[in-house]
Structure formats: C-alpha cells, structure tokens
Here is the input.
Amino acid sequence: MSQATLKARGITGPLAFFKNFLPRFALRLLGLALVDALAIWLLYFLIRDGVWPLAIVLVIVTLIANVINLTDRLYPLRWMSPAFVIIILLVLYPILFTVYTAFTNYSDGHLLTKIQTIRRIGQDQFLPEGGETVQWTGYRSESGEIVLWLTGEKGQTYLAHPNEPLQEAVSGEDGIGPLDESGVPTSIEGYVRMEVRDILPILDSVLAPLEFGEPPLTYKIKSIKEAAQLQPRYVYDEAVDAMVDQIDGTVYYADEKQGFFTSEEGKSLNPGYQVVVGLANFERLLNSPALRGPFIQVFIWTIVFAFFSVLTTFALGLFMALVLDDPILPARKLIRTFLILPYAIPGVIGILIWRGMLNQHLGVLTTNMVNLFGWAPGWFTDSLWSKVGILLVNLWLGYPYMMLICSGALQAIPRDIYEAADVDGASTWQRFWGITLPLLLVSVGPLLIASFTFNFNNFTVIYAYNEGRPPIPGTPTPAGYTDILISYTYRLAFESGRGAEHSYAAAITIVIFLVVATITLFQYRFMGRWEEISESV
Amino acid sequence: MKRRLIWTMLTLGVLATLVLSACAQATPEPTAVPTAPPTKAPTAVPTKVPTEAPPPTEVPLVQVVVWADELRSPVMNELGVTFATDYGVELVVQEMGFGDIRDQLAIAGPAGEGPDIIIGAHDWLGQLVANGLVAPIDLGAKEGEFLEAALTAFIYEGQLYGMPYATENVAFFCNPDIVETAPATWDEVTALAEQLEADSGGEVTAWTIQTNDPYHYFPVMTSFGGYVFGLTEAGYDPTDVGLDSEGSIAAATWLEGMVADGHLEPGVDYDVMHSLFEQGSVACIGTGPWALSRIRDSGVSYTINRYPDGGAGSGSPFLGVQGFMISAFSENQLLAQTVLTEIFATEEFMQAMYDADPRPAAFLPVRYAIEDPDLASFAFAGADGLPMPAIPEMSSVWTAWGNAVEFVITGQLSAEEAFTNAAEQVRTLISE
Here is the structure.
C-alpha cells in the first residue's frame, strides 16, 4: 500500500500505521488465506476426481479474488469480490455447464466417464470352465505374511502362499498342526490362525489383491469363506479401443457417437459413458412426436397462463395498494401485514392448502359450494375449471408481491400532478387512468415483464398443484390441460425413453430460453411506449 | 508493485497451506465428516500390518458406510455398536431420504465419496445397473434363507444385485360391518355396489380407487389377464407393451361399467379414498402396509384379503422389494458383501429391522415368525405378486397408464380408446 493512498484515507505517521493499517492488512491477509485454503482443499478433490472444468473455474475465481484484494488500484472492486466469486460459481458456471451438457449424451446409462466405465466393466468376473471354487482359512505370521489353507470341492487340501504354486498339504507335515472338526489345522508353525475379527479389517486392502497358485488361473478370495479361480470377464484392449469378452471372444468396440461399447451384432455393454454428440439432442427435439399433437395447445396455454397470472396479480395488488394508500383507512399496518402473509409462507405449503380446500370430495370450498348451490366446479377434473383453479392459486401466491412494489411506486408519483388534475376538475377514474396507471407502469413495467418470464417457467406451482392435470385425451404423448411448456417438456426428458435424460433436458431448456428471450424482447419494445409518456409528463 | 503482489500471493499460498495442515491435524478422524472419503482409511492399513504385526485387538477398525433412510438408520446405528468389538467393523450409518439415496449415489459414487452399502428398492435396479453404480453380489449359502420372489426381484440381466430384506404389496381391504365376506370376484363387487345403492340410497358404495393411480389399479388389470410388460424368462420385455392387451381392455371395460352405473366417482385421491373407507362410506379399497397405522387409528373394522378374481385368477399386485445393495465404487466390496451375508443376514438383525419398520420380511426365519395377523395377510395377498418392472422403460409407462385410468373413470374416453391410446403413447415414448 503506497503512502499516497494512506494519506488519501487520512492515515499519517508511523503510529497510525501500526494502529490502523497493520491490523487491517493482517486481517485481510488472514481472510484471503482462509479463502485460499478452502479453494486448495476443494481443488484437491476436484482434480482427484478429474472434474477439470470446475477446477479451472475455481482457480480463475480464486486468482481474481486475490488480485482484487491485493491491488490498490482495484480498491473499489474489493467489496464486490465476494459477489464476483459467487456470480461466477453459482450463476455463470451452471449456465455454461448446461449449454455444454446439451451437446453431450449425459443421461441415465451415460453418467460415467469412459475411464470409469472401463474400470467398472473390468470388475466383472467369471469362473472359467474347469475353474474351481475352494474354501479358505487364513493364517498370518509375525511379520504379516499371509498363508491360506484351502479345501477343494473334492476334499483335497492345499497350503497356499501368495504368488506361489499351491502345495498339497496334510496335517503333521511342514509344521501343520492337528485338524479341528471342520478339517482345518488349528495351527501352522510360525503363523497364527485369523478369526473373523482379524480378517474383516484387512479383507479388501490386504487379502483381496493377493493371488495364489500358477498364473493365469490363480485363486483369488471372493468372499469371507470362498476363493475361486475367477478371471476378469472383459479386458480392455487399448490397441483397438475395445472391451474383449474372455468367455466367447466377442469384441465390443468403443462407439464414440453413442457412448457405448458395442459388438458387431449391435449388443452393448452396461454402463455406457459420456460423449459429445453435437446437435443430436436438438435434432431429436425437432423430430419429437411431442412437437406435433398437443404442443401448440400447451404453448398457447403457457402464454395465457403467464399473461393472466401477471394481469390478475397486478390488478389485485394495485387495488390493495391504492386502498392501503388512503390514510382514512384504520389499522393500515395491521391489514398490510396480513395481506403480505401469503408471500411470507413458503409457496409449496400455500399450494398444498389450496389443493386441500378445492378437493372435490373433502375440500372446504367445494363441499360448502355443493351445500349452498348444489354444484361445485370440477377443480381437478374439468379442463376449464382446472385452469381457473390454478390461476386463482397463483393469484393468491403472487398478489402480495405486486402490492408491495405498487405501494412503493405510488409514493414516487409527484403529488403536484394530482393537484393540477384537481384544479382541472378530473374525476377519480380520470386521475387513475390518466395519471396513476401510466406513471406507475413506467417504474413497474420491467418488473411485470420479469413476472411474466417467471410465470412462463413456473414449474413449481404447476407440479405442486396438479402436475399439469387433467390429462388431454387422445394425444400422441401424455399431456395435461394445465401443462405449461416447462412441465410438458420435463416429462419428455425424465419420463420417457430410458429414464432421466439430463442432456435432452438441457437442450430443451436452451430452446425454451430462446423462446422466452424473444417474447421478453418484444415486451421491452412495447414498454418503450410508456417511457415516452413519462418523458412527456 | 507487481513483484510485491506476486510475493504477497506466494506468502498467502504458504499461509493457506499452513491453515490447511492445521485443519488436517485438528481433525484426525475424518469419519464424522461425510465429505471425507471413508474408503481412504483401509488403504493406510497394509503398510502398517506387515511391519508391526500388532496383536489382533489393536487391528484398526475398518469402516463400512451405509446409506439408510430415517426409518432404518436408528436401528442400524444401535446394532452397529456391537460390530466394532465383535467384527472389527465400524458401521457408519448416514441418514437420508429414501428417494435421495438413489439420486445421491449417482453423484457421490463416481466422485469416490459414496457409501459401501445402500438401502434401496428393487425397481431402481434398471437405472442403477445402466449407470454402473451397483456391483453384483454373491450371497453364497445364505441365498436359501430368502423369499425366492424377493431374490428374483433383485436379479437384473441374470445377475443378483441385492440382498432383500422386506417386501410390500397392496391388498384388498374390506369393512366387515358393510360386507360380511369380502367379494371374491369383480362381478360380486358390481353386485355389492347395486345392493348397497339400493339399501343406502347412494350413501355407501362398494369399492373406490384413486382417479389417476396405475399402481393400485394393477391388481384389477392382472385379475382380468392384463399386463404392462410381457414377462419372459429373461425378465420384462420392453417391446411387449400389454396395456392394450385383451385382458387389460377387459379390466377397463369392467371399470367403465362401474362408472356408467354410477358406482364409481372421479376426483378421488389417496386421502379421499382413505377418508371414505374410514368413514364407512365405501366397503372396500386397495391399499398397502404403509396405511395400516392410519386405518387402525381410525377405529374402522377391516379385513385384509386377496384381490377379487376377474376371470384370470385373483389379482396380482405389484411386489416391491427393499434390500441392501453394494456400491460399485466401494473400495471395500468384499467386506461390504461379508457384512451383508455374515452380519445382516442373521435373525437378530433382520428381526430388529422388522420391529423398527414392520413390513413382511424377505428373510424367511423372520417372515415365518410374523405374529401380526395383518402383516401375515399382506404376505398372503402378495403371494402371487409380480415384481414391479425394474427396466428403465417403466418410466415411460406411469403417466400414460394413469391417464388412461382417469379417462375411463371420468368417462372422457371409452375403455378401449383409453387403453389403446395409452399403449401407443408408451410405445412412442420408449422409441423416443
């Protein structure tokens, strides 16, 4: 830190330096050291697991944080650096990763990397023809050497040292002690017999890697009681990039387009692995039967749903805000608190309560309607009423937000305009349509567009309320009357084909983003007109 | 300026390393931290054992990490205490939601931070195997002590992947105050509905089912000879979709008749179905062991029966099997398998698991000793149960199938239209 900057901050003299600057600088260094320690710790795991993209992003982010906090010129950015770090890690990286995923085949059956897949398939074992399974008992010497007593299928017994041929053995020779009732020596000279308590802790780490007998048909321990001449079922041949089946010699070549090891007859090994597939996911979406049939219907409902969600919540919120703005109203604060409650309660709980109240057989609302009028709408079975129902629920969830922003925006409208209107003799309606609404829209407009975008993709409310039901009869793929684009395509990605298809979902997300972005762009053009009004006021 | 920056950053690096090493020493037991790879511990063992050969009592404990849900984890924790002294195995039970176990395994397993053993349902197998997340297991001689149907459910593509511990299936509950003996055929259900309609003026109905629920509808379908996927020796065949088979249509036609005669109403969900039964407004419903405590608490009288016959025998419910599986990424696979066969597959352990969460056990000595007559009835009702298909294609079926049931119950489509269309939807989705 240069003397100039210190002076600029009003710190002078050696005493002040020690008093003010040093502790702060030390504190900052300590803070940075902690951040760096965390980063290094995370890096260790990321690099170990081969998660390179995230590791690189983490390094960049940490470097940025360090440079900003140690360079005087970047002083103004210092307090922004946590935000930078968080934005890059939690917003930018996931977006880039989603885009990347859309061009891969990352899905059920293709979760692993190729290396992991080769390792996994390599674990499969088989007992070759003529191979034998034997019972084993383990003994250990002072120095930790292991020897096994093997009992074969026909009762023959062997002593087995690691990596040495088996020797037939009987009690009384080579220091082998007397046999117990199960035919196993109670002692072997120089060795102590291992009990379960001694075996388990070293079973995988020490015993499993040992091989006994002559290669290639060596005995390996396969359970706490048995050892067998197991052989790896598939062996990876690097030269031809293929897994070779050791039983029948079938060659499974790596298919880099599909992400599978596939034989010439078209048989594939499980699991597959991740590969980059280019535009395949987008092509699949274009050719999907789901884009014919109910798609248009779903798309129109999505826009209707988003539009009416915004319109109804804004109308009610504005109305409430206007009423609460009037000082004549008693207990305004209390009422306002109550009205904000739906916003404070977690949305999912509110949705569940509404589901209960509208329930056709038990719901408070429905049963009372039946008692009063002898009729109640089929909130969950009728195509029209289910749409009305979900708009009502969304209205309940959304109006407090609109009320809050309208209350704030109303304060910002200059009072003298109203006074001028009064002088001109404007009615209440004229004041509302001519002054309040246009001026309000200037400031609230962008928020309305944001709200539209949010509701366009409001998966939570649709799925928690009725999962897009009731279903539309006779469609080529399942679709519901209240399905919006995102819930409809969610089903396409996660409830079709062979399970969860993350890459397909990512491709769909990108397409939906493009759709929403286009709509939003048009809306901003439209909002431009309101700007002109504000300028002419 | 620049040089100082570099120097400071270097110093920081050193500082950071110091902090790190301090942290590392402060936590000698990474066991409690779930993010620390539990499989690391045993790798330190081999270098130590041969050189020092400590007496058996000082052999370090080896950890086995188990993921279990909130119902099972307390009892496993309790039993695990004795494992350390008896077997030298430290059982580390990490609790998580049942459904989360499957999703988290896909993330933590390949990252090397997953468990050795998980509790799971057999119908996860298709996904788990396709993703290479679970390893085949060998129960050896213990295999004979398990219910065969439960073992079969854990076989996927000819390999055994799990050790079952409990089965569950739906059964046919009837209220003996309304109907003395439970109907044995679906025609008797229709007759009962007509009689109750005449007696009670529509207040009490014979049977109800959730409007969009294929799982509880399956036994109705099978009793008429319907099926979802054709069953061959190699397992379920995804190319043989049976939703539009003769039997499936016959079952739907019977359902359509019930609706047409006004004996079945739409808009019923799980709570409605149970409330109606508990109020005595419906004579029979189909439900599973998970609803037992709620039905008992309501005080309604009930009997648990096999599903009625529709012409192809009494209805077979889906058999769900829960059990233990071994992560393919475990570095202690032999140990994990030994824990299953030698410690878990014992009467003491299985009985404790049953007591903690009563459902028909898959371990025969415990299953035969079930004293609760209700659970015995469930086991009886599920004797012909068909394992829920574990093939990944099953995910394409649920929505289309449930919608078909709903269309028939709401009368929007005829039985034949609804189920023919559903079968077409499933075929489209599978080929997608």
Q: What stands out?
A: Residues 24-57 of chain B have pLDDT under 50 and may be disordered. The first strand of chain B starts at residue 62 and ends at 68. The domain at 41-168+320-378 of chain B is CATH 3.40.190.10 (D-Maltodextrin-Binding Protein; domain 2). Chain B has two domains: 41-168+320-378, 171-316+391-431.
